[in-house]
Specification:
InterPro entries: WH_DNA-bd_sf (IPR036390). The chain is about 40% helix and about 10% strand. α1 crosses α2 and α3 crosses α4 (about 55-70). The chain has five helices and five strands; from the N terminus they run ααβααββββα. It has two domains: about 1-90, Winged helix-like DNA-binding domain superfamily/Winged helix DNA-binding domain (Arc Repressor Mutant, subunit A, Orthogonal Bundle); about 90-135, no CATH class. By secondary structure, the chain is of the alpha+beta class. The protein starts with a helix and ends in a 31-residue tail after the last helix. Bound molecules: zinc ion. Zinc ion binds near residues 37, 38, 76 and 86.
Length: about 150
Amino acid sequence: MASTADDATREEVRRAGLAADGPLPRLLSLLRTAEETHFDAAEAQRLAVESGLAIGRTELAAMLDTMVAHGLLGRVPTTGGAALYDTILRPHSHMLDEATAMMVDLDVSPETLSAIVARAIAEQPGRVEVLLRTRAPEKAPEGPTRRGRPRRIG
Ligand SMILES: [Zn+2]
């Protein structure tokens, strides 16, 4: 079932230099309309299966990495474990509560972010860790690449 949103996603995928005739635009659409904006490959696969999109685990993982490499998906900076993807592309911060495995976006001003970090440290001394990420400068867009080939950044 094609929709206007799917058409827009297909066009966006094309502009990013990727083939838009495969399952990738539909997958991206599914991920962007999901309630949760952060997910790992297993959650993306579950979402795809629930929506009748049959993609193998390896192919799906490659598609996620391809979308990241082409600026269609973000990645949450993590220090280990499964890669965590993000449908919100603009730079923003995250707060992770390990006890509940809850990831919250902190899309706030630098002043508010500083205040949140200072308050968390004050309220939970010795339990707050900060991973400070500095994004690499954006690269110029590249031409089309073969679909399904994962590409590394940097
Ligand atoms: Zn996020």
